[in-house]
Amino acid sequence: QSFSARLVTSSKVYRGLRQYTQTLEAYCTAYVAIRTVSTLHDLEAALCAEFGIGAFEELGLGPILAQPLVVAIFKPSPDLAAPPRITALQVACFLRDYMRDKSWGIKVVKEAFFAELAASLKLSPG
Question: Which among 61, 76, 90, 111 is least surrounded, fewest beta carbons within 10 Å?
C-alpha cells in the first residue's frame, strides 16, 4: 500500500475516531447537565447502556478515568484506579442519614461529608 493510500486510510480512521469521541463527549455533557447529582459509576453504566457494551473499555478509548471531559467534570483523584461502585441514589441516602445523625439544621461541609462517605465505603478520600 502506498504512502498516500495509508495516509487517506489513517485520515478516515482519525475522522471516525474524532466523531465517536465527540458523540461520547456530547452524551457525557448532556448526562451531567440533566442529572445534576450523578456519580462516575452512574455515568459509566449509562454509557455502557447507550453504546450497547458491557464495559467502558470496550469502546477502545481507554479507561473512563482517562477521558479529559470526565476528569474536568468529576475531578477524580489521580490515585483512583476505577470509579467507586456507588450510585447517586446511594449518595442521597447516605446524605439523608448523615444529616439525620448530625442534625437537620447543620450546614453540610462537603469535605467532611465525602470523607465520611469514603470511610463508610472503605475508600481512600480523594
Answer: 111
Question: Three-state SS string across 33-97, please?
Answer: HHCCCCCHHHHHHHHHHHHCCCCHHHHCCCCHHHCHHHHHHHCCCCCCCCCCCCCHHHHHHHHHH
Work out the pLDDT band at 126, boundaries 50, 70, 90.
Answer: very low
Task: State the sign of the Cα–Cα–Cα–Cα dihedral 110, 83, 89, 101.
Answer: negative
- Cβ contacts of residue 96 below 8 Å, gap of 6+? none
Instruction: Measure the CA–CA gap between 69 and 27, rounded to whole angstroms.
Output: 11
The model's pTM is: 0.77
